[in-house]
Amino acid sequence: MELSNLFTVADEHETAKKTRNFLKNDLEGLLRLANKDANFLRSPSFDGMPQSASGKT
User: Fold this and answer.
1) How far apart are CA 20 and CA 14, in angstroms?
2) Rounded-to-integer distance, Cα 14 and Cα 18, Å
3) Distance between CA atoms of 40 and 33, rounded to whole angstroms?
4) Which of 44, 21, 20, 41 is nearest to 31 (CA)?
5) Closest by Cα among 30, 9, 7, 26 to 18
6) Which 3-state string (H, E, C) describes 3-52?
7) Which of 11, 32, 38, 46 is the most exposed place for a label (fewest CB within 10 A)?
8) Model-wide pTM > 0.90
9) In whole angstroms, what is the distance from residue 16 CA to residue 21 CA?
10) What pLDDT score does 25 carry?
11) How far is Cα 31 from Cα 28, in angstroms, rounded to an integer?
12) Contact between 40 and 31 (Cβ < 8 Å)
């Protein structure tokens, strides 16, 4: 089964238009409702180093 049969093709122009509308009109109100600042939204950062649990209790 091909993936093209499962998903419709996205309209990139319409998606970009709706995204701009959301960021311009809706995001600030939603952040206020959540009592969060826009700085709250950041991409995760990974340093590439594995982490292990501390042996201290």
Assistant:
1) 10
2) 6
3) 13
4) 41
5) 26
6) HHHHCCCCCHHHHHHHHHHHHHHHHHHHHHHCCCCHHHCCCCCCCCCCCC
7) 46
8) no
9) 9
10) 93
11) 5
12) yes
In this structure, are residues 4 and 10 in contact, taking their beta carbons and an 8 Å threshold? no
Structure tokens at 18: 């709706």
* Model confidence pLDDT, tens digit, residues 1-57: 566 678 788 899 999 999 999 999 999 999 999 999 888 888 877 777 777 776 665
Give the 3-state secondary structure of residue 55: coil
Distance, CA of 31 to CA of 14 (rounded, Å): 24
Tokens found for residue 56: 């201290």
In the chain, the amino acid numbered 19 is: T
Query: Cα–chain-centroid distance for residue 53?
Result: 28
